[in-house]
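Justification of resources, computational component.

The compute hours requested in this renewal are based largely on the per-chain cost of generating structure records like the one below. Each record pairs the submitted sequence with a full structure-token output. That output is archived, and it is also reused by downstream analysis tasks.
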Amino acid sequence: FSPDGRSVLSSSDNVEEDILIWPIGTVQDTVNWVYANRYVLPLDCDQRQQYGVRPACVDGIAPTLTPTFTPQATFTPTATSTLRPTFTPSPTPIPTARLVASSQVRLRTGPSQNFDIITQVQPGITVQVLEYTDDRGWALIRLPDGTEGWVNSDFLDT
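The structure output for this chain reads:
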């Protein structure tokens, strides 16, 4: 301990940290830090007597620490008169189209004639258009029964 009691020197077997200087403030600061950051075993009556720890045991019973409570600052929200807009989401309509062709339209599993046929659809029904391909002229549609698949977009009258 330093003469003023505000630092401690310790040695280490680590070559890079031969001597360490630890600032400690006051003895009470050190005790508070130890209790806040380390588990301290409670001393039994014999140990209290051996080390001269106060308070001593009374009738063979070691005193226990009573935790103290330090209230934390709390935040209490207050109402303000600032008006903020309320946004109400509205559903985005799914575009529809009518199938137009001289015969049945083949609904496929992907956007080209190379994909499997799911079903054939009669022209004239209205379908939901979920997606268009940019460069291949195909559209992903949903039939009234919920079936989805791809058709050539030339068969859609939007």
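The chain has a mean pLDDT of 80. The two ends are 89 Å apart (CA to CA).
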